[in-house]
Amino acid sequence: MQNDTIAAIATPQGVGGVGVIRVSGGESFQLVAPLLRRPGKESIPSIPPTHHLTYRVITDPQTQEVLDEVLVAFMRAPHTYTCEDVVEIQGHGGPLILRRILRAVLRQGARLANPGEFTLRSFLNGRLDLAQAEAVMDLIGSQTEAGQRLAMQQLRGKLSEQVQQARTSMLGAIARIEASIDFPEDDVPTPLAEELQPFIIEARQQVDKLLAGSDQGRLYRQGVRTAIIGRPNVGKSSLLNALLRMERAIVTPIAGTTRDTVEEIANLRGVPLHLIDTAGMTPTEDPVERIGVERSRAAAENADIILHVFDGSVPLAEHDWQVLEELRGMGYGKQGARPVIAVLNKSDCEQVITPATLAELWPGAPVVATSTLVETGLEELENTLAELVQAGSVMSNESVLITSARHQEALRRGEGILRPR
Ligand code: GDP
Ligand code: ZN
User: Fold this and answer.
1) What is the interface pTM, i.e. ipTM, of the complex?
2) Separation of alpha carbons 319 and 341, rounded Å
3) What is the C-alpha radius of gyration for the chain, rounded to an integer number of angstroms?
4) Does an H or E element contain 13, and which?
5) CA separation for the pair 156, 133 (Å, rounded)
6) Whole-number mean pLDDT of the chain?
7) What is the whole-number distance in angstroms between the Cα of residue 230 and the centre of ligand 2?
8) Same CATH topology for 6-124 and 223-388?
């Protein structure tokens, strides 16, 4: 059923200036052409030259009612997104208009496309390889410019190219082995290990190079989950807002968040920083509050970095200790474990807690004094976060190509096989 003709609205739901309906498959030209008229003319259906944008009105074939004025492009295979004949109809971007146009196209005999089916076809037709098809989703979903650049590189085949190089090296070794098996009498000797080694080493170096940047690459794509934790009233929500206000921050609200935990995305030098503001973490009898506590605990457990916030203007409270114990219980702050930054907030007020006190509570953790009120220390907090995020992987951006966990996993497996034993 691969070559039936599929159609779908290609632009997002909702109202926009223009909306696009995409039709792909062997029948797409014949299905769409009868719906189109030159404005003001009783013209017979005709197919405009390929890859040209043409002005037409689109009509309901049964009632002859004009549905919309459109720009339409007929694009002959194979130079199209799917490598099949494609028609793109640009109408006005109202959801009702687009649905009516789509319905007319479907009534002509097209089938409604499944999600991702256009991209699937480009993959199946060989225009995109799997890494490139995956990059389409990454490109659409990218949250920072750096992430977008990486997805674009992958889409343009840069990753596939490097993997191909490793493969070519391996084929060099395989060809020698197979030749000696296939032609044992024709004096093709069994290759010596020393002869095969250079090919294998070359392949391994390729794989290592890709793996080297992969932790960093995943950060650009997935971001860093940073939970802002602390007892009530120390300034967690204020800190979240202050970090988001900084000029580099792009603010993306995430749907489905509640009052209990709020998640926003800030842009930390290209790495999406998922900031999670939590409610308290202390056990409570109140069933409603308990949900908030559970969510906070889950946020803390799943975080990559914890910002443990204290109020410097008042003595440590019992509640601060409870939070501390809870975080320690989750393994934060231990050597080699996930990092904590101790934030001493309200530094604009007279201080009764010193940074040294916090350094004792969290040995080895960076301590940053901040004031969200007069906006001091925020830059330093950002620098500290950036250092932690980049720790151990100081890479130039060019060496970062791997952004997906699946690719990283596959490369690790390959690396294991290529390693000398
Ligand atoms: P949360 O409960 O930890 O989320 O704390 P909030 O962000 O809601 O802040 C609690 C109170 O502390 C609010 O009245 C804030 O205006 C105040 N606050 C937060 N940060 C600062 C600060 O840096 N300096 C001062 N003086 N007040 C602050
Ligand atoms: Zn709050």
Assistant:
1) 0.98
2) 18
3) 29
4) none
5) 10
6) 84
7) 9
8) no
Class of domain 132-213+401-421: mainly alpha
32-64 pLDDT tens trace: 999 999 887 666 778 899 999 999 999 998 888
Cβ(372) to ligand 1 under 6 A? yes
First to last CA, the chain: 47
pTM score, whole prediction: 0.61
226 lines ligand 1 (CB under 6 A): no
At a CB cut-off of 8 Å and minimum separation 6, what does 144 contact?
220, 250, 267, 270, 271, 272
**E strand spans, 165-279:** 224-229, 252-253, 261-268, 271-278
Q: Is 142 annotated as belonging to a binding site? A: no
**Considering only the top CATH level, what class is 6-124?**
alpha beta
> What are the residues facing 346 on neighbouring strands?
none
Cβ contact 398:361 at 8 Å: no
Q: Which amino acid is at 224?
A: V
Closest listed residue to residue 344, CA positions, set 311, 300, 376, 393 = 311
Q: Is 272 flagged in the annotation as binding?
A: no
Determine the distance separating the centroid of ligand 2 and the alpha carbon of 232, expressed in angstroms.
Answer: 7
Domain range 223-388, CATH architecture: 3-Layer(aba) Sandwich (3.40)
CA distance 189 to 336: 51
Q: Cα of 229 to ligand 2 centre, how many Å? A: 9
Counting beta carbons within 10 angstroms of the beta carbon of residue 317, is it exposed (0 to 12), middle (13 to 18) or buried (19 or more)? middle
Residues in the chain, pLDDT under 50: 1, 247-259, 392-398
